[in-house]
Specification:
Elements lengths: L4 E6 L3 H12 L1 H8 L3 E7 L15 E3 L2 H6 L5 E4 L8 H10 L4 E3 L2 H17 L4 E2 L10 H8 L5 E7 L2 H13 L3 H10 L8 H4 L2 H15 L9 E2 L7 H9 L2 E12 L2 E12 L11 E8 L5 E6 L3 H17 L25 E10 L5 H11 L4 E6 L18 E7 L2 E2 H13 L3 E10 L3
Parallel strand pairs: 1-2, 1-4, 2-3, 4-5, 5-6, 8-10, 10-17
Antiparallel strand pairs: 7-9, 7-11, 9-10, 11-12, 13-15, 13-16, 13-17, 14-15
Helix pairs in contact: 1-12, 4-5, 5-10, 7-8, 13-14
Bound molecules: L-homoserine.
The site of L-homoserine has 10 residues, from α7.
Amino acid sequence: MAKPLKVGLAGLGTVGTAVMRLLEHERDKLAARCGRPIEVVAVSARSRGKKRGIDLKKLRWFADPARLAADPEIDVLVEVIGGAGNPAKRAVETALAAGKPVVTANKALLASEGYKLAMLAERHDVALNFEASVAGGIPIVKTLREGLNGNSFNRIYGILNGTCNYILSRMEEDRLAFAECLREAQRLGYAEADPSFDVEGHDTAQKLSILASLAFGTKVDPGAVYVEGISSITLADLDAAAELGYRVKLLGVAVRTEAGIEQRVHPTMVRKDSAIAQVMGVTNAVTVDAEGLSPITLVGPGAGGMATASAVVSDLADIARGVRIPPFGRPAARMTAIRKAPMQRHEGGYYIRLLARDRPGSAATIARRLAQRQISLESIVQRHEIRPPGGGQAGRSGAPVPVILITYATSEDAVRKALAAVRRDRVISGRPQVIRIEKN
Ligand code: HSE
């Protein structure tokens, strides 16, 4: 058999140890598939003495991952340290500059440095593979980069953050408040060290920016993503969505529009009977809407040691076989600066929940302000407080009355301006809740 592919593994946390276990477990099958064995020969991690349940005795140890990356014995660097800065960045750059291919699971690094790293990899004729950086075990990078090579993409959207999907699912299924579900997600180890990164949508935005580059050939730019998280979503929204035939998901959406590429992350109403609405719990899903095909939805585990290791090992197998595809599916020099479609120009349906002051003319004022912006309503539901029999006239308690509006397709700009006018009219209390509806 041909000589083994010698791997330097930087990072021995949940993912790094899972990579070692998977390589060990699949050793013979991988060797048969790739025509050569894949062997970890050296590792680097913060603490050498930590108990990990894996045998490191035969492996060389490096305290500094960049020195591991530069070591002449290793053929390829696997970086599963994480984080956009050092030591991950320096280790990846060192390996590429030394002409060694790199496999990384690092979405933050790819989102901030993806284009520069792709240039560096190509300059040195080596692979930079990052299947594990988006949606864990779902092979979405390969799907976009290789499987759908012959297609133009119209839209990619998905559930890219397991923590948010877990929270929204638990809120709906168990009628729990947001904060309680978040605590549970943290306890189960789904959330990032700083959970606001998950729940405010930034984790999804990084992943989306990588998918958008693969799909549209643009330089990775997480700054071009409009981001809203799920922390304002209440049980009242989930109930209203269910009644209207929808479910709320935190989606990342990248879509080609006449105004440019729209990239957005926000709570989204999806039709309850759609494929993506069925995805509950910590699971991820990505739908690819490509020319000439009906949409393809991939569903699977988006995080966790084994799911991520599966993607890392698949990337390693490509390197062992000598497969090298440009990191973003085209020569980096052909990646273009993104023409960002402004969010104000987003078009679609909207769910709007308002607390209308309970006095004559409130509803008429709201309707007038929407009409002034050419916003047409598909449905309007006003929920009066239910009062006990003989307890007086329903809805005349003086308390604000929830009003739920569903609009036909309109623009973000029109909705924002109409709601600003409604607030100035003082016919509502508090801030309106706005959730965009995604056609699917
Ligand atoms: N915190 C992330 C999630 C982990 O919840 O999906 C995977 O990137």
